[in-house]
Write a structure and sequence with these properties.
Length: 262
């Protein structure tokens, strides 16, 4: 009996089968390698690897440079204004300030444009290089201070030596505090009198003549004061008008107290 061989498979089909077997083997080998690691060690789980940010992570770079994703905000703007103003005031460019502080020009540019909030150590280096207290870099941050506005003729009248002799003292405002630092007065002398009270107090006095003519005494000195004249002196020496030459007389008296008032 003659045996007839069955049809031989085409060569392309054989190569396809071989390729399929090799691909499956390669996948299996790669799977084993992934489970054990290239050196036979089991790699850390993906969740644990996620805890360490990549070196080129933008958030990590920003935090290392002392800035959050949104920049410095109001604090950064205040610091930026002080750093830039002081740098220009003392005649430094950004490169020179970088040399003094050891801070890169790029970082200084970010600080001066309120694009970062510098660390405390950076602020210390900036303050030292700019010859200013660290606290000065925060000046103006969320501060609210009094301003005193007094309409003409509405200042309260205060009683001082000479009030009964026709001298009028109008207080032009006073800032609140444990004690006054500055006392501005509008003094009006309308009546001729032979009574000339003298004053003594701590601090500095500044007189500015607005109208009229008078002679003003300071210790043994006498000064003839007319409109536009200014006199400045220490308040602990006896002082006051000694002669009213031309009425009415108006002058501005500003007392600057240098210590606790007595």
């Amino acid at each position: 009996m003659e045996l007839t061989a069955g049809p031989r498979p085409e060569r392309g089909v054989e190569w396809a089968a071989v390729a399929t077997r090799r691909t499956a083997a390669d996948q299996t080998a790669r799977g084993k390698t992934a489970k054990t690691g290239a050196a036979g060690r089991t790699p850390a789980p993906a969740a644990k690897r996620g805890k360490s940010a990549a070196p080129d992570s933008p958030n990590l770079v920003a935090m290392e440079n002392g800035a959050g994703p949104e920049g410095g905000g109001q604090l950064g703007q205040v610091i930026a204004n002080h750093v830039r103003t002081r740098r220009l005031e003392i005649g430094l460019n950004v490169g020179q300030l970088a040399e003094r502080t050891g801070i890169s020009k790029g970082m200084l540019s970010k600080i001066e444009n309120a694009q970062t909030s510098p660390s405390l150590s950076t602020l210390e280096r900036l303050a030292f290089a700019l010859d200013m207290p660290v606290t000065s870099l925060f000046r103006g941050l969320a501060e609210e201070r009094d301003a005193v506005f007094v309409k003409a003729g509405s200042g309260p009248e205060i009683v001082r030596k000479g009030t009964r002799a026709g001298h009028r003292y109008e207080l032009l405002g006073s800032l609140r505090g444990p004690y006054k630092r500055v006392e501005p007065l509008l003094v009006s002398l309308d009546d001729s009198t032979e009574v000339f009270p003298l004053f003594q107090h701590t601090g500095i006095d500044i007189l500015y003549m607005l109208s009229g003519v008078m002679e003003y005494g300071y210790g043994r000195q006498r000064y003839k004061m007319e409109r536009g004249d200014t006199l400045q002196f220490e308040g602990d020496i006896p002082h006051g008008p000694t002669m009213l030459i031309k009425l009415p007389i108006r002058f501005l008296s500003i007392t600057i107290y240098t210590g606790d008032r007595t």
